[in-house]
Design a protein that fits this description.
InterPro entries: AAA+_ATPase, ATPase_AAA_core, Clp_ATPase_C, Clp_N_dom_sf, Clp_R_N, ClpA/B, ClpA/B_CS1, ClpA/B_CS2. Belongs to the ClpA/ClpB family. GO terms for molecular function: ATP binding; ATP hydrolysis activity. It comes from Toxoplasma gondii (strain ATCC 50611 / Me49). By secondary structure, this protein is of the alpha/beta class. The chain folds into six domains: 151 residues, Double Clp-N motif (Orthogonal Bundle); 181 residues, 3-Layer(aba) Sandwich (Rossmann fold), CATH 3.40.50; 89 residues, Rossmann fold (3-Layer(aba) Sandwich), CATH 3.40.50.300; 125 residues, Rossmann fold (3-Layer(aba) Sandwich); 209 residues, 3-Layer(aba) Sandwich (Rossmann fold), CATH 3.40.50; 111 residues, Helicase, Ruva Protein, domain 3. The strands form seven sheets. Strands 1, 2, 3, 4, 5 and 6 form a six-stranded antiparallel β-sheet that branches. Strands 9-11-12-13-10-14 form a six-stranded mixed β-sheet. α18 links the parallel β12 and β13. α24 packs antiparallel against α25 and α39 crosses α40. The radius of gyration is 42 Å and the shape is extended. The N terminus and C terminus are likely disordered.
Length: 1020
């Protein structure tokens, strides 16, 4: 409640109370008058629901006139409560709310104050409700101004003047709490000192030629007139009112208060930007490595007379922002031309600039104030705008609105504003390229993704920073693994960002292990807790009487607990010692880093004596201590008794990659050489009966990986020829699994879907203007997301001949450009085409001689179907032989092994006798269809009966199930299973739960059954 007491000439009893209720802001104005006493006016907050009008007494026309309100006005407020808020300033300038005679110039007219100043005055009301002072005085105004937050102008002024803000806040709160309070907090008057401060603020407004009383006027007036608190506080802090005025001048500059929100234009760069040169001086920026060419190009553009505005373009994570940071570091170190020496590089935060700009024009006002500060610096400030595409359209209120881009254009063209922009290629094309007037103001600096070798150099430069932050050591092998594994397995991000993230997360994981209790110690703690509970149980049982056995058990238990506690104490001591050593190493690294920062600062200040002492004295001494501690820690690390590990290794990186991608760690750490050398054997283990074809594929890939083939072509370009069901697709899956660690790396395209000429567009994307242009191409998008993959184009003879035109560039140069202009690399892909052309000739061939003739005839058929330029680009034509019955036995074993893997969750074991296997294979063999009928036979003869038996409860978890031929005798003590779904030529049975290893199948063909037991061990 805000009230001003003064003498009023009105006579006669009268009382008017007007209350308005309207969310979100509600206020009430009441006027009380009694004959011969002070007139009181109060402004108070109230609830936010409904609206109410209350008035009583003699509301004379003369009194209403003083307020500028009529009786009908007040009645109208009940129907339109929002209008009441607009009339509150008219109440405040009423004659009975004027200043007392001893405070000339005092005004509480709402239109005289800025929004933040009026907010501070209103804030005193809620503080008065909390502290219940007899009058409203200056200490409440100080506290209300402080409550406006860190970005409040009063706080900024005090901070600029060197005031301890924590001390100021605690001092004013203590001052308020020490003063007497009143029980009735419904009405209060303005204190005399506060009246004097408000009068002084109004005088300062006129003196400084401002239109409104702002927060800086209140701050200066408080420093001059607040005899209650602030003047004494400043004196104790050895500050004066002049210091406050100098701080106001530093923040405000030459600006005038001619709007209701002038604070947005004060120190705009400080509020909406970050000084990168200051951060570089404080050693807060990471070193920038491998981007010297790009930084030099930026410096060259900035040194131009006009249009000196570089824009850095590149994919996310390649280091665009790092180039700006590298420029800031060069400016600080003096490694720039005279045109840039001593300049400030400010990074503008567009998000902060837009945040909270509710009213139209507020964003533009903020941006103009930023630009004004840059212009007033006379070229000393260079602006860096990250995500500069956000500028286009920002602040626009429609088609006719002026956005931020249009505000920047004139100054960019004239060279008055030197600006560095950064954005991605896609955003540049989408937003800035469309605005040709804005585009020509910038000069493009392209930043490509670094190679693995360059990314490794970057990581080596950052290694020390991450070691110091996490307090761990990072091996060089871990850096190599981060670059190689991220490049191979994390395809949706870019180097060096993804490799840095791997190092960061792996180091964080090791840091957590160092600060947490070791596994061995944790196991002992849990074991002790378990034994303690067991001891309590034994003691409880012994209360009824002494039992010798229980007594013996208790003694044994106590001895075991004593041994564990001794081991616990020993391990705790080791753990504390190792933690102390690791922390000591981390502290030394921190001390070395601080010494380097101190040395750089001394060199910048030309304090060469101090710089030399640090460089040749302090740093070598600390480095020697660190080397001694690290050598001792390395020796202890080799000991098996060490509990903690503070070193990041390649295995740790592989674990992080595994958690991101789901690829098993064991395959990640397996070397490329081991994979290639074991490629042929691994493929033969999975693809049965195609030894010659597998050898051709393995040799082609080994030639490419050894670097003997053209590095600009795909790893291998192969054509698989043969009848259906012989393993062509299976070999592709095996290649993807062996080389790229997951079958998901196989990208399959059924060429029967591309039988029309226009279907070519589906592979590279629809042209602009056609439906589907925004989706991209099926082939190009798939390879962009997974560059390391096996591309399988199945049944190539079914595709339209025009489709093969796009493969010519892929097979020769390893690249393809999609409809959006993106160039996609196929250099890390294996490209495989499959076809059934001439398969009838292969099925008719009998001997080796016939097979050679058939192969030649087959190639003639291929040449007739495919154009010569496509045939000449293939590395190998691999002919797959029809499968024999003997081959199907090996394939049957693989199928049963897959079935056994699915049964593992139920702890079921499956054994199939040799005779039963022969019956199934013979029934399924058909050379014209290959192995696919066998897969169906396994489903019908094994999977279907097993699923029925499991669902019916005939087979319980943990049992061993046998499958035998109908003619075979079952093992002794086995239990035959009867079911209508079991094939007539087979019988299912359960082995005994115990001693299954010695129970052999007993039949007339015992040898086969005995042999089968050894064969089926792999399925157990």
């Amino acid at each position: 409640m805000l009230r001003q007491g003064c003498r009023c000439p009105l006579r006669g009893p009268a009382k008017v109370a007007v209350a308005f209720k309207e969310a979100p802001l509600s206020r009430a104005v009441s006027v009380n008058r009694s004959s011969g006493c002070s007139s009181l006016v109060s402004l108070r907050s109230f609830s936010t629901r409904g609206s109410r009008l209350i008035f009583s007494g003699d509301f004379s026309s003369r009194y209403r006139g003083r307020f500028g309100l009529s009786y009908s006005d007040l009645l109208g407020f009940e129907r339109r409560p929002r209008e009441a808020l607009d009339h509150i300033p008219r109440f405040m300038q009423a004659s009975c709310f004027s200043a007392a005679a001893n405070t000339p110039g005092f005004s509480l007219k709402g239109d005289d104050y800025t929004d933040r100043a009026l907010e501070a005055l209103a804030g005193m009301i809620s503080l008065a409700q909390e502290y219940s002072p007899p009058t409203l005085e200056t200490e409440l105004l100080v506290l209300s101004l402080l409550n406006q937050g860190e970005d409040g102008l009063f706080t900024m002024i005090m901070k600029q003047a060197g005031v301890d803000l924590d001390k100021l806040r605690s001092g004013v709160v203590d001052f308020v709490e020490r003063h007497p309070t009143v029980s009735d907090n419904s009405t209060r008057t303005l204190g005399p000192v506060l009246q004097k401060v408000l009068s002084s603020a109004n005088s300062l407004r006129l003196q400084w030629h401002d239109e409104y009383i702002s927060v800086e006027h209140l701050a200066a007036a408080l420093a001059d007139e607040d005899s209650r608190f602030l003047v004494r506080f400043l004196k104790e802090s050895k500050l004066t009112a002049n210091d406050i005025r100098q701080a106001i001048k530093a923040i405000r500059g030459t600006r005038r208060v001619n709007t209701k929100t002038p604070e947005v234009s004060y120190q705009s760069l400080k509020k909406y930007g970050r000084d990168l040169t200051e951060a570089a001086m404080a050693n807060e920026l990471d070193p920038v490595i491998g981007r010297d060419k790009e930084v030099r190009r930026v410096i060259q553009i900035l040194s131009r007379r006009t249009k000196n505005n570089p824009i850095i373009l590149g994919d996310p994570g390649v280091g665009k922002t790092a180039i700006a940071e590298g420029l800031a570091q060069r400016i600080v170190s003096g490694d720039v031309p005279d045109t840039l020496a001593g300049r400030q590089l400010i990074s503008l935060d567009l998000g902060a600039l837009l945040a909270g700009a509710k009213l139209r024009g507020e964003f533009e006002e903020r941006l103009k104030s930023v630009i004004r500060e840059v212009q007033e610096s006379s070229g000393q400030i260079i602006l860096f705008i990250d995500e500069i595409h956000m500028v286009v359209g920002a602040g626009s209120a429609g088609e006719s609105g002026m956005d931020a881009g249009n505000i920047l254009k004139p100054m960019l063209a004239r060279g008055e504003l030197r600006c560095i922009g950064a954005t991605t290629l896609d955003e540049y094309r989408k937003y800035i390229e469309k605005d040709k007037a804005l585009e020509r103001r910038f000069q493009v600096v392209l930043v490509d993704e670094p190679r693995v070798e360059d990314a490794l150099s970057i990581l080596r430069g950052l290694k020390e920073r991450y070691e110091m932050h996490h307090g761990v050591s990072i091996r060089d092998s871990a850096l190599v693994a981060a670059c190689v594994l991220s490049n191979r397995y994390i395809q949706d991000r870019f180097l060096p960002d993804k490799a840095i993230d791997l190092i960061d997360e792996a180091a964080s994981k090791i840091k957590i292990e160092v600060t947490s209790k070791p596994t061995r110690l944790d196991e002992i703690d849990r074991k002790l807790m378990q034994l303690e509970m067991e001891k309590i149980s034994i003691v409880s049982d012994m209360k009824g009487g002494q039992d010798a056995a229980e007594q013996q058990r208790l003694q044994t238990l106590e001895k075991k607990m004593a041994d564990l506690k001794e081991e616990q104490s020993r391990l705790n001591a080791i753990w504390e010692q190792e933690r102390a050593e690791i922390e000591k190493i981390a502290d030394l690294k921190q001390e070395i880093d601080e010494a380097k920062v101190e040395q750089q600062k001394a060199e910048r200040e030309y304090n060469l004596n101090k710089a030399a002492q640090i460089r040749y004295g302090k740093i070598p001494e600390l480095t020697q201590k660190l080397a001694t501690l690290e050598a001792a820690a390395k020796r202890e690390e080799l000991s098996s008794s060490r509990l903690l590990r503070d070193t990041v290794t390649a295995e740790d990186i592989a674990q992080v990659v595994g958690s991101w991608t789901g690829i098993p760690v064991s395959r990640l750490v397996e070397g490329e050489r081991e994979k290639l050398l074991g490629l042929e054997k691994a493929l033969n283990d999975r693809v049965i009966g195609q030894e010659e074809g597998v050898r051709s594929v393995a040799e082609a890939i080994q030639r490419s990986r050894a670097g003997l083939c053209d590095p600009n072509r795909p790893i291998a370009s192969l054509v698989f020829l043969g009848p259906t069901g012989v393993g062509k697709t299976e070999l592709c899956k095996a290649l993807a699994r062996q080389l790229f660690d997951t079958e998901e790396a196989l990208l399959r395209f059924d060429m029967s879907e591309y039988m029309e000429k226009h279907s070519t567009a589906r592979l590279i994307g629809a042209p602009p203007g056609y439906i589907g242009f925004d989706k991209g191409g099926q082939l190009t998008e798939a390879v962009r997301r997974r560059p390391y993959s096996v591309l399988l184009f199945d049944e190539m003879e079914k595709a339209h001949p025009e489709v093969f035109n796009i493969f010519l560039q892929i097979l020769e140069d390893g690249i393809l450009t999609d409809s959006h202009g993106h160039t996609v690399s196929f250099k890390n892909c294996i490209i495989i085409f499959t076809s059934n052309m001439g398969s009838d000739l292969l099925l008719q061939a009998s001997g080796t001689k016939d097979r050679e003739e058939v192969t030649q005839a087959l190639m003639e058929i291929v040449r007739r179907h495919l154009r010569p330029e496509l045939v000449n680009r293939m590395d190998e034509f691999v002919v797959f032989n029809p499968l024999s019955e003997a081959n199907l036995f090996g394939i049957f074993d693989l199928e049963v092994a897959k079935l056994q893997a699915r049964l593992t969750d139920r702890r079921l074991t499956l054994s199939v006798t040799h005779r039963a296997k022969a019956d199934i294979v013979q029934a399924a063999y058909d050379p014209n269809f290959g192995a696919r009928p066998l897969r169906r036979a396994v489903q019908h003869t094994l999977e279907t009966p097993l699923s029925r038996l499991i669902l019916s409860g005939s087979i319980s978890n943990g049992r061993r199930v046998g499958v035998a031929s109908k003619q075979e005798e079952l093992p002794v003590s086995s239990e035959k299973i009867e079911d209508s779904k079991i094939p007539e030529n087979l019988q299912f049975f359960l082995y005994p739960q115990e001693g299954t290893a010695q129970h052999m199948l007993a039949s007339g063909d015992t040898g086969d059954a005995t042999k089968d037991t050894g064969e089926t061990a792999a399925f157990s």
